[in-house]
Amino acid sequence: MRLVNSPAPEKQTFISFARGLSMFTIVIYHFLKYAPLPPLLAKANLLGGSGIYIFLLASSYGLYFSKTTSWFNFYLKRFRKVLLPYYIGLTLIVLINHFVTIYPESWQAYVSHLLLYKMFYEPYMGSYGPHFWFISTIVQFYLVWPLLLKLSESLKTIPLLSLAFGISILYSVLIFKLGVQDDRIWHSSAIQYFWVFALGLAMAKEQWLPQLLRLGLFRYALLFVFGAGISLAINKFAGAQGGIFNDYFMFIAYFSACVILYLISQKIQLISRFVLWIESFSYSLYIVHLFVFSCYMKSMSETRISLYEVPIVLALAIGIALVFDKAVNLLLNLKLRRARPALGI
């Protein structure tokens, strides 16, 4: 692997802001799915779930600037940063679930998470929380990253993006024809999001971000209307069956909204500080938030949540995520320190 320079501070700030905002809106989206929303607000809430595209984009962008010198170290770092917190969080959920049943899952489902084969088996894909599909996708992303990086070195940027978009579109057509577009193991495959990974890499390689941030509020407002409008049209005329082709337009809408809010946050520092604070423990928040939500719903014997309860559950999720984040960091740092003498580091 080759070394590259770190991105400029402005780029780092926007990427961190985008990650924090995307994770925050994803959490809100998951909670509001169970709240009584008017039809228009329910459709608007779908935009919050589109934050996953930005999170993947930011991951690809950040990896391009990775200073890892070997693929072994690259995957070791990913294992420590992504899989270990996931395994710890999942194990805690399984242990609590053993005494207070929240999910009707089996030990076989738990093993499928640990060995990562649940990403290929639909009955286990959503076990212990439907949001854990994302871990499968991000692991697949790490596996295809060497190929994508190699392609970026062999192809110019436009041919690379054309190839990536072509692969994702053809894959979407294929699973649509097979009638499996509603199965998570198919429509959340890394191939479906290959274009996002390539776009994040291209933005880093070509240093497009400063120019994109200078387009201004008005242009991004127009892009937001365009992306959201096309998305609503696809949803209206093609329904859920056509949603698999909606990723590109939802991305345009969400990215535009993200830039608009980022530009506003440069004037209103409170927004920036809050979003960057969320980003600092965003992965831990993602791991625990739906379990906290499910525990709350069980304690209240509810299947739906009122709007005034959403801030309560959100505060609980954030508080528990902060504790979990600090505990995991402490545990991993202790393990690392103890391992160093044996590794000769």
Detailed description of the structure:
The chain has 345 residues and is mainly α. It has one domain (9-343). It has 16 helices and no strands. Helix 1 (9-32) packs antiparallel against helix 3 (51-64). The relative contact order is 0.14.
Question: What labels would you give this structure?
Answer:
345 residues, mainly alpha, 16 helices, 75% helix, 0% strand, globular
Topology:
Elements: H1 9-32, H2 39-49, H3 51-64, H4 71-99, H5 107-114, H6 122-125, H7 133-154, H8 157-178, H9 184-187, H10 194-205, H11 209-213, H12 217-238, H13 247-265, H14 269-280, H15 282-299, H16 310-343
* C-alpha termini separation: 21 Å
User: What is the rounded Rg?
Assistant: 20 Å
Domain count: 1
From the helix content, strand content and strand pairing, which structural class follows? Answer: mainly alpha
Unreliable segments (pLDDT under 50, ≥5 consecutive)?
336-345
Proportion of residues in β-strands? under 5%
Principal-axes shape call? globular
Give average pLDDT, whole number: 88
Number of helices: 16
- Helicity level: over 70%
Order of helices and strands: HHHHHHHHHHHHHHHH
Major sheet description? none
